[in-house]
Design brief:
single chain, about 220 residues, alpha/beta, Glucose Oxidase, domain 1, 9-stranded mixed beta sheet, 4 helices, about 10% helix, globular
C-alpha cells in the first residue's frame, strides 16, 4: 500500500525554464514584474512572422533589420508578434542553446522603436548579445514583454489569437507559460476555433520532481 493517498510533486526550476516570459524586471530594478503585467497584453490577436518558410535558419544566422522590414506592417504599437526561425526543432540538443539564430542589436533597436507590446520567438533567448539586447527590448520606455522558446509556429496561420499567461509569481522576473494559439477554422464545413499548443514539449531533464507518494 502507498504511504500517502495522493501524489504531490515538488518542482525546483528557474523562472526562465522552457517556454517562458521575461518581464522588464528581469533586467531593470524599476521594471514591471510578472504580477504587474496587464493580462490583456498576454491575450489577443497576434501575428507569426516566418523567417524560414518550410525549414529552419542556419546555425547562428544573424536576424538583421533586413529580415524584418518585409513584415513591417505587423510591427505597430501594442502588437503581439512572434517570429519563427525553425530553431525549436533543435530543442533538447545542446545547439539549441549555443547556436540559435540571433537578433542583431540594430534589429532589436528597430523592433523597440515600433513599440510593439509582445515579442515571441522560437529561440531560447533573443540574442547572443544577451545583456545588450534585453536592455534594449525591456527598457522602461519600450516595455516589451518577451516570450521565449515557443514551438510549432509553422502550424499556425499568419494571424491567430495568442494566450500566453504566466504563473503569477510575486515580484517575478519571469515565469513559465503554457502558450496556446487559438486558430479560426474555415472551409471544409468546419466552423469555430481550435487550440494549438506552441510550447516546447518537455523540460523534465532540467526540472527536479519529488513525489510525496512512496511504496511501502
Amino acid at each position: 500500500m502507498p504511504a500517502a493517498p495522493c501524489n504531490v510533486l515538488e518542482m525546483t526550476m528557474s523562472t526562465h525554464q522552457g517556454t517562458h516570459l521575461d518581464a522588464p524586471y528581469h533586467f531593470y530594478e524599476d521594471g514591471r514584474t510578472v504580477d504587474e503585467i496587464d493580462l490583456s497584453r498576454l491575450y489577443g490577436p497576434a501575428t507569426v512572422v516566418d523567417l524560414a518558410p518550410g525549414g529552419e535558419l542556419p546555425a547562428r544566422a544573424p536576424l538583421t533589420v533586413d529580415r524584418f522590414v518585409p513584415h513591417e506592417k505587423h510591427f505597430v504599437p501594442g502588437a503581439r508578434v512572434a517570429y519563427r526561425t525553425g530553431w525549436d526543432r533543435r530543442f533538447g540538443r545542446p545547439e539549441f542553446f549555443t547556436d540559435f539564430p540571433t537578433l542583431t542589436l540594430d534589429a532589436a533597436r528597430w523592433i523597440a522603436g515600433r513599440r510593439i507590446g509582445l515579442l515571441g520567438m522560437d529561440t531560447p533567448t533573443p540574442s547572443v548579445d544577451f545583456l545588450e539586447c534585453h536592455l534594449i527590448l525591456l527598457a522602461p520606455a519600450v516595455d516589451i514583454v518577451l516570450v521565449e522558446s515557443l514551438a510549432g509556429l509553422e502550424r499556425l496561420p499568419e494571424r491567430f489569437t495568442l494566450a500566453a499567461f504566466p504563473l503569477r509569481v510575486r515580484r517575478g522576473d519571469g515565469a513559465p507559460i503554457r502558450a496556446v494559439a487559438l486558430v479560426d477554422l474555415q472551409g471544409g464545413g468546419r466552423a469555430g476555433r481550435e487550440l494549438a499548443e506552441v510550447t516546447v514539449n518537455s523540460t523534465v531533464d532540467r526540472v527536479h520532481f519529488h513525489s510525496a507518494r512512496k511504496s511501502s
